[in-house]
Specification:
Elements (H helix, E strand, L loop, with lengths): L1 E3 L17 E6 L12 E8 L3 H17 L3 E2 L8 E11 L4 E11 L5 E13 L11 H21 L25
Parallel strand pairs: 2-7, 3-4, 3-5
Antiparallel strand pairs: 1-3, 5-6, 6-7
Length: 181
């Protein structure tokens, strides 16, 4: 199941590292909170989870992004990065349930600049549906960790070089020849 967002939707996004298809993984490690103001980001989609979990996660992700001063823009507006995410719930070997997240962060040229992934452990699952073991606390933790990871990437991402456009090309004026006296 995939949910597409065209607007302010989610909020946070970005991981840890310089560009270049690097990957960051967290497994219950405490991440420092990072603020990332001024980098326009658009959340394009969150897929994999039931609609109710996705909607709750999206709202919490938006709140976490706002707390980190991330500039979330609608999908039809210019953004320096576009983010697509995936959530999954799965039982762990010790009987708990893990809510795993993966975020691919794409640059303006549509190349993946970063992959962020991690998981938050939930309560012991009951029955065959791993989503039944995912509560609001775990969803909130995963949204916060996602926002931290994306913000960390945004603060380390290289700034793209400015491209001159045809109208603003500078012409070199040739000096007028000096007149002999």
């Amino acid at each position: 199941m995939s949910v597409r967002f065209n607007g302010l939707v989610l909020g946070p996004l970005a991981a840890l590292a310089l560009a270049g298809c690097q990957e960051t993984t967290t497994a219950n490690a405490a991440r420092p909170r990072v603020d990332a103001p001024g980098v326009p980001v658009s959340v394009q989609s969150i897929s994999g989870a039931p609609d109710q979990v996705t909607a709750h996660f999206a709202g919490l992700l938006g709140e976490a992004a706002a707390e980190r001063k991330m500039e979330i823009v609608p999908g039809d507006k210019p953004a320096r990065f576009r983010v697509r995410g995936y959530l999954t719930a799965q039982p762990t070997e010790d009987g708990q349930t893990a809510l795993a997240f993966v975020w691919d962060v794409y640059d303006e040229s549509k190349k993946r600049a970063q992959r962020v992934q991690g998981e938050s452990l939930g309560r012991r699952g009951g029955g065959g549906d791993p989503w039944a073991g995912i509560d609001q606390t775990i969803v909130a933790k995963a949204a916060s960790e996602s926002a931290d990871a994306i913000a960390s990437f945004l603060t380390t991402a290289p700034v793209p070089e400015a491209k001159p456009d045809a109208k603003s090309k500078t012409r070199t004026a040739q000096a007028a020849p000096e007149k002999n006296r």
